[in-house]
Specification:
alpha/beta, 5-stranded parallel sheet, globular
Length: 286
């Protein structure tokens, strides 16, 4: 990790000719490795829905529903859904010296360092491999162009799904987000019903309410306050364009405007992913 810190600090001096080599060495020095089954294969992206080697990334603003759709797809495709935000929150809950440092950063809506996030992600991938996992759907990583380059240096990402929603809906969804402190289930109490105007389509998203037994155990994420959400959205917009561009020029970016809530969006997303012939599996993922 010390060598990684040195390399990360020296990034400004890295020119494009040596970038590829640098990225690989950053990845190697950081221990950011993928098992043989997930390592860069140098082959064209696959879209075989039956394959357990799906290596997809979900991009999108805070509150857009990356976690919801990525976890549904992970059940459908039989691959793990790995959300770096969850890894960070697990670390926060551990009350280690690192968690103190992270709490301050996360509660201000800022990003944690590449070193820390890569370390957490590497550990998660290694643990998964030890359990026999293969493939993944990443959610919340990469967040910066540098993270995208590091990832690109170590493995082949087949597809990057960019989920989109209008800003006023994103804010309402973040503020309505609730988590069951017991089962960890994600819910949303926001009831969104915006009428279309001036040629702009309306959008309706009914609340995603928890079952009765979770009702009294609902908590709100500390970083889902209005001030922090606005800062997270601002930062996301600032950093996401280079990441989107990185994947767009590689022909991997699938833009997807969410048309509404889950019942409306899920079948359309499956169609966009050429997975709509897997009707029988949809109910298993619901
Ligand atoms: P999320 O649940 O994806 O909104 O992530 C919650 C918080 O975890 C973010 O606001 C960041 O502080 C941190 N985080 C998650 N993923 C990353 C990442 N790829 N790089 C840096 N920080 C991250």
């Amino acid at each position: 990790m010390t060598a990684l810190r040195g390399l990360l600090r020296g990034n400004a001096a890295v020119n494009t000719r040596t970038a590829g080599r640098w990225i690989s060495s950053v990845a190697a020095e950081s221990g950011f490795s993928f098992p043989a089954s997930q390592a860069r294969k140098g082959v064209a992206p696959r879209r075989d829905p039956g394959s357990r080697n799906v290596q997809w990334v979900f991009l999108g603003c805070p509150g857009v529903g990356k976690g919801t759709y990525a976890s549904r797809l992970s059940r459908l495709l039989g691959v793990p859904h790995i959300a770096t935000g969850d890894l960070v929150r697990d670390e926060l809950a551990a009350t280690s010296p690192l968690s103190k440092q992270l709490t301050e950063i996360v509660n201000r809506g800022h990003l944690v360092s590449d070193e820390i996030i890569i370390d957490l992600l590497s550990k998660r991938l290694e643990d998964g491999v030890a359990k026999g996992e293969s493939g993944f759907i990443l959610d919340g990583f990469p967040r910066t162009r540098r993270q995208a380059e590091i990832l690109d240096g170590v493995t082949e990402i087949e597809l990057v799904v960019n989920l989109k929603l209008r800003e006023d809906v994103l804010l309402a969804k973040c503020l309505g987000r609730r988590i069951c402190s017991q089962c960890g289930g994600n819910f949303n109490v926001a009831s969104i019903d915006i009428k279309g105007e001036n040629g702009r389509p309306g959008i309706a998203m009914p609340p995603l309410l928890p079952p009765e037994h979770c009702m009294s155990k609902l908590i709100t994420r500390a970083d889902d306050t209005e001030e922090v959400v606005k800062e997270r959205l601002r930062l996301y917009h600032e950093l996401s364009q280079p990441v989107e561009e990185f994947y767009r020029i590689r022909g991997k970016l699938l833009e997807f405007d969410l048309p509404g809530g889950i019942p409306e969006s899920w079948p359309k997303l499956l169609r966009a992913l050429n997975l709509d012939d897997h009707n029988e599996k949809q109910s298993a993922a619901a």
